[in-house]
């Protein structure tokens, strides 16, 4: 059972990226799902947002209005659409479920000014 994040990269400020999170061997459709990030200046992961089984989403104030979480239950995949990226969004992005599973490798997002 593992989580695999992908889609990160280097982008200029104001640009967009879409991250994917693939869940293997998980009853994906029955779990609430989260995105987190760990910036180099932080000592811990920061919660970015979540999506409930119902499709309801919530976001941290720092990304609200710029990031959108969605899910594809049929393919065990969750997405994070990130628009209007800022240098302070630079971090390694992780996904996880509720309850939490072992963390994946994450995917690096770097936003240049």
Description:
The structure is a single chain. By secondary structure, this protein is mostly beta strands. Helices cover 0% and strands 50% of the residues. Strands 2-10-9-4-5-6 form a six-stranded mixed beta sheet, with no helix packed on it.
Write the layout of secondary structure elements.
Layout: E1 3-6, E2 9-12, E3 17-23, E4 32-38, E5 46-51, E6 57-59, E7 67-72, E8 77-82, E9 91-98, E10 107-112
Parallel strand pairs: 2-10
Antiparallel strand pairs: 1-3, 3-8, 4-5, 4-9, 5-6, 7-8, 9-10
Helix and strand composition category: mainly beta
Rg calculated over all Cα atoms: 13 Å
In terms of quaternary structure, the protein is single chain
Straight-line distance between termini: 37 Å
User: Helix coverage percent of residues?
Assistant: under 10%
Question: How are strands sequenced across the largest beta sheet?
Answer: 2-10-9-4-5-6
What is the strand tally? 10
Shape: globular
- Ranges where pLDDT stays below 50 over 5 or more residues in a row are none
The fraction of residues assigned to DSSP E strands is: over 45%
Instruction: Please trace the helix and strand order, writing H or E for each element.
Output: EEEEEEEEEE
Largest sheet: 6 strands, mixed
The averaged pLDDT comes out at: 94
* Helix count from the secondary structure assignment: 0
């Amino acid at each position: 059972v593992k989580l695999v994040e992908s889609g990160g990269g280097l982008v200029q400020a104001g640009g967009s990226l879409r991250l994917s999170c693939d869940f293997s061997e998980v009853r994906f459709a029955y779990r609430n799902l989260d995105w987190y990030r760990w910036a180099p200046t932080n000592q811990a992961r920061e919660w970015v947002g979540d999506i409930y089984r119902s499709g309801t989403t919530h976001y941290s104030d720092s990304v609200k209005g710029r990031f959108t979480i969605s899910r594809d239950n049929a393919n065990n995949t969750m997405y994070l659409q990130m628009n209007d990226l800022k240098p302070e969004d630079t971090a390694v992005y992780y996904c996880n479920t509720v309850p939490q599973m072992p963390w994946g490798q994450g995917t690096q997002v770097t936003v240049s000014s």
